[in-house]
Design goal:
about 90 residues, alpha+beta, 4-stranded antiparallel beta sheet, 2 helices
Length: about 90
Amino acid sequence: MIRKAVAGDIEEIARIYRDAYSEEPYFDKWNLDFLIPELKNELGEREFRVAEVDGKIAGVIIYYLYNWQDGKAAYIRDLAVSERFRRNGIA
């Protein structure tokens, strides 16, 4: 199931985000103390959607919409899937 993220999802989103971006090719060393407030702040400014599998957040997409020609277009800023749910077509 894909749904709009809510504030209560931020900690799990932050874990998925941290884990995904700590791997190759990024090797970022973000910690949750940094990520959680940043993501909470962005929740009201960007579009967040989460993929759920059996009630657990399996992945997240962060994007924003903008006007383009005769309609809207989306710019995907980040897409991350929890390691245990990868290779299942979630992304």
